């Protein structure tokens, strides 16, 4: 089955530690995205990538980093510079990042808690 | 300015009744797409329905329909015959032909009352 997988589902981190969230898709989509969602809030864009080896900052990129070495993978690292990282993180992909058609497909999300 | 505005933080509807969730958008592009997603308490985002700016007819998908009023820049979601399983957060989103992002509203929490 095609889709997006995120791991782990729940993640606990101590303050000062970097942590990497995994996102893999087998939909052959060019574009991938990372969003952060806080309780009762909407989605805020962290980073997105239109093509391998290229990515752009979203609205809240500070304290996060990404890589796009393979088309199917777009891992997100939450660094110690992110002051309030406890949140729900959603990865998404779409056929491409331009044009008006083609919805985003989402992974199941990772809940990150800083202890 | 906000690209997507959802003015109803929470809505209640009686089971089997219809409900309308409001969404207005802001864009200067002539070509754009509008989307609605459902997010149950589990957190997954489920795609519901899509409307293109050049589509002349309102989109429909089963019990979901999109009331598209281009001049008013509104794209309201109508859920007919509400079911208990419809209780969730609902997000309106847009992508523009000239851009490369999806813009999401702040969501509406829908509760279906038995």
Architecture overview:
The complex is a heterodimer of chains A (115) and B (114). Chain A is mainly β. In chain A, 0% of the residues lie in helices and 49% in strands. Chain A has strands spanning 4-7, 10-13, 19-25, 31-37, 43-51, 54-57, 64-66, 76-78, 87-94, 105-106, 110-114. In chain A, the strands form 2 sheets. In chain A, strands 2, 4, 5, 6, 9, 10 and 11 form a 7-stranded mixed sheet that branches. Chain A has a 4-stranded antiparallel sheet with strand order 1-3-8-7, with no helix packed on it. In chain A, β5 and β6 form a beta hairpin. The mean pLDDT of chain A is 91. By secondary structure, chain B is mainly beta. In chain B, 0% of the residues lie in helices and 52% in strands. Chain B is built from no helices and 12 strands. Chain B has strands at residues 4-5, 10-14, 19-21, 24-25, 32-39, 46-52, 60-61, 64-69, 74-79, 88-96, 102-104, 108-113. In chain B, the strands form 3 sheets. In chain B, strands 2, 5, 6, 10, 11 and 12 form a 6-stranded mixed sheet that branches. Chain B has a 4-stranded antiparallel sheet with strand order 3-9-8-7, with no helix packed on it.
List keywords for this structure.
heterodimer; A: 115 residues; mainly beta; four-stranded antiparallel sheet; B: mainly beta; 12 strands; 0% helix
Q: Which structural category do the helix and sheet elements of chain A fall into?
A: mainly beta
Report the radius of gyration of chain B as a whole number of Å.
14 Å
N-to-C order of helices and strands of chain A: EEEEEEEEEEE
Q: How big a fraction of the residues of chain A is strand? A: over 45%
What best-fitting shape of chain A do the alpha-carbon axes yield? Answer: globular
Mean pLDDT of chain B: 94
Show unreliable segments of chain B: none
Largest sheet composition of chain B: 6 strands, mixed
How many helices of chain B in DSSP terms?
A: 0
Could you give the order of the helices and strands of chain B?
Answer: EEEEEEEEEEEE
Helical residues, percent of chain A: under 10%
Largest interface: A-B, 28 and 26 residues
Q: How is the biggest beta sheet of chain A arranged?
A: 7 strands, mixed
**Ends of chain B: how far apart?**
38 Å
pLDDT below 50 for ≥5 consecutive residues: which ranges of chain A?
Answer: none
Radius of gyration of chain A, in angstroms, nearest whole number:
13 Å
Which overall shape of chain B is indicated by the principal axes computed on the Cα atoms?
globular
According to DSSP, the number of beta strands of chain A is: 11
Mean pLDDT of chain A: 91
């Amino acid at each position: 089955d095609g889709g997006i997988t995120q791991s782990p589902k729940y993640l606990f981190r101590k303050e000062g530690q970097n942590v990497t969230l995994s996102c893999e898709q087998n939909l052959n989509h060019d574009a991938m995205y990372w969003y952060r969602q806080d309780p009762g809030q909407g989605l805020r864009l962290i980073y997105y990538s239109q093509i391998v080896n290229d990515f752009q900052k979203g609205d809240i990129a500070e304290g996060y980093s990404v890589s796009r070495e393979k088309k199917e993978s777009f891992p997100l690292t939450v660094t110690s510079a992110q002051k309030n990282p406890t949140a729900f993180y959603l990865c998404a992909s779409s056929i491409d990042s331009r044009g008006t058609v083609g919805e985003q497909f989402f992974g199941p999300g990772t809940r990150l808690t800083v202890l | 300015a906000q690209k997507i505005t959802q003015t109803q933080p929470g809505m209640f509807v009686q089971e089997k009744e219809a409900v309308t969730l409001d969404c207005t958008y802001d864009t200067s592009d002539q070509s754009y797409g509008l989307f609605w997603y459902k997010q149950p308490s589990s957190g997954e985002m489920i795609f519901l329905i899509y409307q293109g700016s050049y589509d002349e007819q309102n989109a429909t998908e089963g019990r979901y329909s999109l009331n598209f009023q281009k001049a008013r820049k509104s794209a309201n979601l109508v859920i007919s015959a509400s079911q208990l399983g419809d209780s969730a957060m609902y997000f309106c989103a847009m992508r523009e032909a000239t851009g490369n992002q999806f813009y999401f509203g702040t969501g509406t929490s829908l509760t279906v009352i038995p």
